[in-house]
């Protein structure tokens, strides 16, 4: 049989799970990541160990693969543009560049008619000086390179804002008004080159310290009207970019009695990720098509069918915090003795606080059962209840 190779820029856990999905469907895989021990590089048929911008490495990836995707947001858009000369690259460099820049991302959302948190772009001292007081308290976020709450500072006064911008070395930033959140949710859509667009069920997400901690997905996790609005908004955002691939759009749901909810209509888009997303990991165990299979399908030009969730599920992130020292192994046996627990570890050599080391998905017949099991597993592992 002919070897068909799919490529991915980046060797983190998302690349690893993409590689697993691609290989299951008979594809060969190539990963470009400088780290010899990268989670995806270690399980891929081919691992090109060069910098992301290395022309020779990119050429090798391009020669080997029929199509290339990306697994992390900060992949240099220039590298994708170089690959795109000779190969299918999805998502495209332009969509990735927009997602990499909070200011451009917000303009795109606004152009799709989806409300965003009130904000100001801060790139110059003059822009800093004219920030209106009604954006405070707010969150100052670097316009690019942030993830898992990194590059963000909460500020309450103009003086704190000025100090925070200086601490961030005066790089381009966006100041967002701090909104009263009732809850957070996200939608994963997959869009093919023919414009066909499918979605996973809407995820309800709990963040702790700016990092995703728990995702709950089942009938009734969110009001149906909200689900419908979020899915419609995510699809508009994808089609507005002529997007091809898997896209995750994160939303805030505002406290219903707040002035902000009255002004913004309750549902506000936060940001998008041009790739599968941590909040979609449950789909590997709870849906008939996972977000990674959707990524393979969009990349290989295979048809998209609407995924069906066959089990209620809760996903718990396993952060480095539960590995107090390098030789410690968390108590997997009692966790896996609970019916419906699915352990995913990313094969990272070193644990550190807040680092995503793996996740645990719990499935079961009923929401009550899934919740009880998830709480038991969390207690065993020392993860705070939710
Ligand atoms: P990710 O890992 O999702 O890429 P990130 O570092 O890009 O994270 P954001 O999604 O911007 O960060 O913010 C992280 C979390 O901080 C949000 O999920 C939310 O809980 C909180 N947050 C961010 N912006 C606001 C806001 N304007 N008002 C209230 N809470 C916010
Ligand atoms: Mg986020």
Task: Summarize this entry quickly.
The protein has helices at 13-24, 55-64, 77-84, 93-100, 102-111, 125-129, 158-167, 224-240, 259-264, 283-286, 291-300, 332-336, 367-381; strands at residues 5-9, 28-32, 46-48, 67-70, 88-89, 119-122, 138-142, 152-155, 173-177, 181-191, 197-199, 203-208, 211-217, 245-254, 267-273, 313-319, 341-345, 356-363. It is an alpha+beta fold. The protein binds adenosine-5'-triphosphate and magnesium ion (MG).
What report would you give on this structure?
By secondary structure, the protein is α+β, with helices and mostly antiparallel strands. The protein folds into 3 domains: 5-89, Rossmann fold (3-Layer(aba) Sandwich); 118-177, ATP-grasp fold, A domain (Dna Ligase, domain 1), CATH 3.30.1490; 181-381, 2-Layer Sandwich (D-amino Acid Aminotransferase, Chain A, domain 1). It contains 13 helices and 18 strands. The protein has helices at 13-24, 55-64, 77-84, 93-100, 102-111, 125-129, 158-167, 224-240, 259-264, 283-286, 291-300, 332-336, 367-381; strands at residues 5-9, 28-32, 46-48, 67-70, 88-89, 119-122, 138-142, 152-155, 173-177, 181-191, 197-199, 203-208, 211-217, 245-254, 267-273, 313-319, 341-345, 356-363. The strands form 3 sheets. Strands 10, 11, 12, 13, 14, 15, 16, 17 and 18 form a 9-stranded antiparallel beta sheet that branches. The chain has a 5-stranded parallel beta sheet with strand order 3-2-1-4-5, with helices on both faces. The chain has a 4-stranded antiparallel beta sheet with strand order 6-9-7-8. Helix 1 (13-24) packs across helix 11 (291-300) and helix 3 runs antiparallel to helix 4 (93-100). The longest helix has 17 residues, at 224-240. It is globular and about 65 Å long. The model has no long low-confidence stretch (mean pLDDT 96). The structure holds adenosine-5'-triphosphate (ATP) and magnesium ion. Adenosine-5'-triphosphate binds at residues 117, 139, 141, 146-150, 176, 178-179, 181, 184, 207, 210, 250, 270-271.
């Amino acid at each position: 049989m002919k070897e068909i190779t799919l490529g991915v820029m980046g060797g983190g856990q998302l690349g690893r799970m993409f590689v697993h999905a691609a290989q299951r469907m008979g594809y060969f895989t190539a990963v470009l990541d400088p780290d010899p021990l990268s989670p995806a590089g270690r399980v891929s048929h081919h691992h090109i160990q060069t910098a992301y911008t290395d022309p020779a490495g990119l050429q090798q990836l391009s020669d080997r693969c029929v199509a290339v995707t990306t697994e992390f947001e900060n992949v240099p858009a220039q590298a994708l543009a170089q690959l795109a000369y000779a190969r299918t690259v999805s998502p495209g460099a332009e969509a990735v560049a927009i997602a990499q820049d909070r200011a451009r991302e917000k303009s795109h959302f606004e152009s799709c008619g989806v409300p965003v948190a009130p904000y100001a772009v801060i790139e110059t001292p003059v822009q800093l000086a004219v920030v209106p007081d009604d954006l405070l308290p707010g969150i100052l976020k670097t316009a690019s390179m942030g993830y898992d709450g990194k590059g963000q500072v909460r500020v309450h006064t103009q003086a704190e804002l000025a100090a925070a911008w200086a601490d961030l070395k005066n790089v381009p930033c966006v100041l967002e008004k701090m909104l009263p959140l009732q809850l957070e949710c996200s939608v994963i859509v997959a869009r093919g080159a023919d414009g066909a667009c499918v979605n996973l069920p809407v995820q309800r997400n709990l963040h702790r310290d700016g990092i995703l901690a728990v995702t709950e997905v089942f009938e009734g996790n969110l009001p149906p009207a909200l689900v419908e609005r979020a899915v419609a908004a995510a699809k508009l955002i994808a089609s507005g970019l002529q997007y091809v691939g898997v896209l995750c759009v994160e939303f805030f749901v505002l406290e219903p009695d707040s002035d902000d909810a009255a002004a913004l209509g309750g549902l506000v888009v936060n940001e998008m990720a041009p790739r599968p997303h941590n909040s979609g990991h449950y789909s590997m165990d709870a849906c008939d098509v996972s977000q990674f299979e959707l990524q393979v399908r969009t990349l290989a030009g295979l048809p998209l069918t609407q995924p069906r969730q066959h089990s209620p599920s809760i996903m718990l992130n396993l952060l480095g915090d539960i590995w107090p020292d390098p030789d410690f192994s968390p108590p997997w046996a009692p966790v896996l003795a609970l019916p419906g627990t699915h352990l995913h570890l990313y094969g990272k050599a070193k644990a550190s606080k807040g680092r995503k080391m793996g996740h645990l998905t719990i499935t079961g017949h009923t929401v009550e059962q899934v919740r009880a099991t998830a709480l038991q597993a969390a207690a065993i592992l020392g993860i705070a209840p939710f």
